[in-house]
Design brief:
The protein has nine helices and two strands; from the N terminus they run αααααββαααα. The protein is mostly helical and 319 residues long. Helix 3 packs antiparallel against helix 8 and helix 8 packs antiparallel against helix 9. The longest helix is centred in the middle third of the chain and has 40 residues. The radius of gyration is 22 Å and the shape is globular. GO terms for molecular function: pheromone receptor activity. It is a multi-pass membrane protein. It is found in: Cell membrane. It comes from Panthera tigris altaica.
């Protein structure tokens, strides 16, 4: 029992500390670039919102698990429970929708200039701002039921159920069947649409990358063949980001389903679920940062003609 708490604490600290630092670095870098540069690029707003949403996920999930690990029950009232669970649910949906938008924008960016899809590519940050605001509104409404049904454990007298499956200090009051299925349907539609778009855009990016590599392979020297181009590395970073999200999402879904179905309290399973819940939010900024750090500077406009545009890099890099 003691070792399980130690392992859970180590897992929690190893994900929350670096995750918050990486997302704050990403957020500050893109916010600074958006505010100071004359050209307002869509990528700056998209990645700033993604980093902000991931930071909220880490903070809310981390605070819930810290109260469980250290038995800090006195600090959790009904208002705190509502705030923590509501912000966590909103941020999770916001992270999914923003990742989807990032994938779609990148797919439009690398589409051929003669393609009709290319006309949908946002040219300035103001063209993606309505979509980002819409994500906030939709996810706030979809998660609004938590504000009515989440309460502190001492207020339920044991009559509630835990919304997270592993948090003993905040309970969810029983809701009507109509309300429950309404919000479940809205969340399912959001997830299905977002992940379908992510799957389509990722497949399209992979197809365009392979086609581009085949078309220019005969023009490259042997030295160039050994070294991947910046465009190749950048597109791979976008594909890796989408793959990470889908992997963590579905693994977390399967673990949550198993925990809910079998009501297991196995500490290994709960520690795995903690890692899967925080995995994408904590690791995604380092995927972007590490990929951009290996990209050499652009050579100039002439060298860019006919090239596939790279995926959105982290702070300070240019597309």
């Amino acid at each position: 029992m003691i070792w399980s708490k130690v392992i859970r604490g180590i897992t929690l600290l190893s994900l929350t500390g670096p995750g918050i630092a990486g997302n704050l670095f990403l957020f500050v870098g893109h916010a600074y670039a958006f505010l100071t540069r004359p050209e307002k690029k869509p990528i700056h707003l998209i990645l700033a919102q993604l980093a902000f949403a991931n930071t909220i996920i880490i903070c809310t999930k981390g605070s819930k698990d810290i109260t469980v690990c250290f038995h800090l029950r006195n600090g959790l009232g009904t208002a705190t429970c509502k705030t923590v669970f509501y912000l966590g649910r909103v941020a999770r949906g916001l992270s999914m929708c923003t990742t989807c938008l990032l994938s779609v924008v990148q797919a439009l960016t690398i589409s051929p200039r003669t393609s009709s899809w290319r006309k949908l590519k946002p040219r300035t940050a103001w063209q993606v701002l309505p979509s980002l605001l819409l994500f906030w509104i939709l996810n706030s409404l979809i998660s609004s039921n938590l504000l009515s049904y989440i309460t502190a454990a001492q207020s339920t007298n044991g009559s509630g159920i835990t919304p997270s499956g592993s948090h003993p200090y905040c309970h969810m009051l029983p809701s009507g069947l109509t309300v429950r299925w309404l919000f479940l349907t809205l969340m399912a539609l959001r997830d299905i649409i977002s992940q379908s778009l992510m799957g389509w855009s990722s497949g399209y990016m992979a197809f365009r990358l392979c086609k581009h590599r085949r078309s220019v392979l005969h023009l490259r020297s042997s030295r160039s063949r050994r070294n991947s181009s910046p465009e190749t590395r950048a597109t791979r970073s976008a594909l890796l980001l989408m793959a990470c999200f889908l992997l963590f999402y579905w693994a977390d879904f399967i673990f949550s389903f198993c925990i809910g179905s079998f009501l297991t309290n196995d500490h290994t399973v709960l520690n795995m679920k903690l890692f899967l819940t925080l995995g994408y939010a904590s690791l995604s900024p380092f995927v972007l940062i590490s990929r951009a750090s290996h990209q050499p500077p652009r050579r100039g406009a002439r060298g860019d003609v006919g090239k596939v545009h790279p995926a959105p890099p982290p702070p300070g890099a240019e597309r």
